[in-house]
Every structure is written in C-alpha cells, then in structure tokens.
Amino acid sequence: MNKIICIANQKGGVGKTTTAVNLSASLAAAGKKTLLIDADSQGNATSGLGIDRILHGQSNFYHAMIGQVTLDSVIVETALPNLHMVPSNQDLIGMEVEFVHLEDREVRLRKLLQSMNGSYDFIIIDCPPSLGFMTVNALVAAHALIVPLQCEYYALEGLSYLLNTVKLVKANLNPGLSLDGILLTMFDARNSLAHRVAEDVRKHLGNKVLKTIIPRNVRLSESPSHGLPIILYDVKSRGAFAYMALAEEILRRGT
Fold this sequence. Notes:
By secondary structure, this protein is of the alpha/beta class. It has helices spanning 16-29, 44-48, 61-65, 95-98, 108-114, 133-141, 153-157, 159-172, 192-205, 218-222, 230-233, 238-253, and strands spanning 3-7, 34-38, 76-77, 83-86, 122-126, 144-150, 178-187, 209-215.
C-alpha cells in the first residue's frame, strides 16, 4: 500500500519544494520506490529534478487532473532509479476556476491516486503556497502531512490557519489524515532568534515537531539550479546529511 505524504504550508519560501524534492530523493536512495507529485503551478519541483517545465506539448499533472489522461501516463523517470515524478507547470493555474462547479472537486486527486495503490512505497505531494483548491485536494488524498516551518516569527503566524484547515479536512473529508510532523527549516545555529522560535514551536507542539532540523546551506540552495536533489549534487553537504536524517526519521516513525 502507498503511504501518501503531503508537504504543505500556505506561506511561501519556507522550504516546501526543497523538502518534497530532497525527502523523495532520500527515501528513494534508502531503497523505497517513491513518486513525487508536483502540485504547484510554479513547477519548481519539476525543474528541481531536471525536468523541463514546458514539456513541449507532453501531458502533465494538469491533464491527469482534468481526466484527459491517466496518472500513470504522465509519470517520468528521474536521475534516481527509485524516484519517479509527475511534472507540472502553469497549466494548473486555472484549475480552481475550471472545477468550481464540480461536486467532487475536493476528491479529484484522491481518486487519481487510488490507481497507484501498491505501485509505490511513498507518494510525496508538493503543494502550492496557499490553502486553495490544490492544497485541499492534497490533504484529502494524503495519509500524512508534514509542515515545513522556517525558524522565524512570521512563519509561525499562518500555522494556526493551516492546522485549522487540517481539522476541517479531517472532520469532513479525510478522517485518516494525520499531522506527522512540523519540520524546522532554514535553521541558522548562529541566530538566537532561530533557537527561540524552535523552542516555542517545541513547547506548543511537543512531539509533533520532527527531531531533524534542516540547516541553512548554500549547497542546498544551489542544487535546484543544476536540476539535482542534494544527495546527487553534494552528498557530503550538511543539507544532504539533514535530508537523509529526515528520511530515516520518517521511516522509523512508520510514516
């Protein structure tokens, strides 16, 4: 059976795509067959794995969501043998308007993923920076949610809105959804504010905060421009060690 993990936070710039790409790659390197779905119209996860966002007329995630093609027909291979991907681009922008009158609009992705049952050990969904149509679809489809949280106070402000959305989704659409972890990202050990934010988050959310912390790391920031996950770009970097540790923690938790 697939384990479907949604990576979401309505705030941009907190490391969602970095986490989705590098967690997927680290799980694949650990021998787990993994599918990464780029559910963001910006297509950063797609380009971050070296896949052309333009796709030159090829079908992508959008075409699967509207029912024009099957999901398995848009899956592409990556540089890692165990990691496959469903690419996206700006075609997704108008989907919320296109689906506004459909009764099953919140469960479209869940229905698509039912066809993948047993094909992958993990399915990771990279969400857009909003609590709109696509993120709700991902929350409805997922078994678990991981929330990347930048270690600064502005990043904390929107967390309550996301957790409230999770409660609504659990109550009305997906009772099996669990918050599997708050992931502290972009952590600068030299910054006292980062330490205070980390302490506050752990104080209020306890064991929901993952033990692994993702540091600020130049190599981690560089790797998307080369179309490679960090473990292929610089496996000896602090960023690579951090995401491999995150994958190990997820596996230990049974996620």
